[in-house]
């Protein structure tokens, strides 16, 4: 599969390049990105270089599809659909701390979800979302996108910090994407 560029009113989602390595490296120094994602910890520049080199290979296999979220040619986060198989994919994302808020992540995620469900895109039936239990920021974004909370998977997620309980949610192509109550979110 060839990489696809997605555009929204404010953003361009495209494959990160060598020009984005510094932005990726800087963002992945954030404690919460290292805690709640699968990026290595500590995160070194070589990790960002390896990530950028791997993305075109992943697009070629069609199993893991990542985009850099760019605003005015500056990379501010990443988003992707991962573990794509049998009509199912999993949404994952992070935003650089200084670019959180303002709805940019929701805007990028909506574009990815729309493309993932579209017949001219991946024609998925379901998109899952998982996060380390306690990652309230990510959960709020997923809920806003219309994901339905499906439960806690005990000790199911592994990253550089060890093994964690994970929250899981799902969105079906036929769902209306209206935010639903999530029992793990108080607001």
From TrEMBL:
Keyword Transferase assigned: yes
Keyword Transferase: yes
Keywords from the UniProt entry: Transferase
Cellular component GO terms, alphabetical: cytoplasm
GO molecular function: protein N-terminal-serine acetyltransferase activity; protein-N-terminal-alanine acetyltransferase activity
Domain N-acetyltransferase: start-end pairs: 23-174
Lineage: superkingdom: Bacteria
Species for this entry: Microbacterium thalassium
Pfam families reported for this sequence: Acetyltransf_3 (PF13302)
Name of the protein described by the UniProt record: RimJ/RimL family protein N-acetyltransferase
């Amino acid at each position: 599969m060839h990489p696809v560029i997605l555009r929204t009113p404010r953003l361009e989602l495209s494959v990160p390049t060598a020009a984005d390595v510094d932005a990726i490296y800087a963002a992945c120094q954030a404690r919460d990105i290292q805690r709640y994602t699968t990026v290595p910890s500590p995160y070194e520049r070589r990790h960002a270089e390896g990530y950028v080199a791997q993305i075109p290979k992943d697009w070629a296999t069609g199993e893991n599809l990542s985009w850099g979220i760019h605003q005015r040619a500056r990379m501010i986060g990443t988003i992707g659909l991962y573990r794509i198989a049998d009509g199912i994919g999993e949404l994952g994302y992070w935003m650089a701390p200084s670019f959180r808020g303002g709805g940019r992540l929701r805007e990028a995620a909506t574009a990815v979800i729309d493309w993932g469900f579209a017949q001219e895109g991946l024609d998925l039936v379901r998109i899952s979302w998982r996060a380390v239990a306690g990652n309230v920021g990510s959960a709020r974004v997923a809920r806003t996108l219309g994901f339905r909370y499906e439960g806690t998977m005990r000790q199911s997620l592994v990253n550089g910090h060890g093994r964690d309980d994970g929250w899981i949610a799902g969105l079906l192509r036929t769902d209306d994407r209206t935010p639903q109550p999530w029992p793990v979110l108080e607001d």
